[in-house]
Write a structure and sequence with these properties.
Blueprint (H helix, E strand, L loop, with lengths): L12 E4 L2 H12 L2 E7 L5 E8 L2 E7 L23 E4 L3 H10 L3 E8 L5 E6 L5 E5 L8
Parallel strand pairs: 1-4, 5-8
Antiparallel strand pairs: 2-3, 3-4, 6-7, 7-8
Length: about 140
Amino acid sequence: MNKVVNGSTIIPGLRYRDAHAAIDWLCKAFGFEKQAVYEDDQGRVVHAQLIHGSGMVMLGEIRDEGFGRHMAQPDEIQGRETQCAYVVVANCKAHYERAKAAGAEIIEEYSEKDYGGAGYGCRDPQGHLWSFGSYDPWHTP
C-alpha cells in the first residue's frame, strides 16, 4: 500500500476552453489556491496546479493533440462526464453556500449523508462536475 506523505498521489487532470477564467473561478468559488501556472508564448495555459488542503488538481487549455485527443468536454457530450473529482472540505455547508453564490450549477443539493458527513454536487461554468463533502475516507472512525 502506498503511503501519502505530502499530498495525494492521485491528481485529477482537467481541460478547459478558457483555463485562465476557470482558474480564477475555481479559486473564488471553491477555495482553490494557485500553486503554479505555466503559459505558452500566446499566453495560453499549458499546465496549472491548484491546491486545496493537501489535494491538487492540474489543468490546462483544451488541445487537439496527444493526450488531449482522447478527452471530450461536457458540452460536447450532452453535459455528461465519465468521472468527477471529490474534494474533502471542513465546513461543507459554508462551502456549498460559497459555490452557490459564485454561480455554481447545483446538481445535487447539500445534504447530510447516511454514511457520515455531508455533501453536494455541482458544475463549474465550463460544465465539469465536482463533488464536495465533509466525509473524509482517510479519517473515518
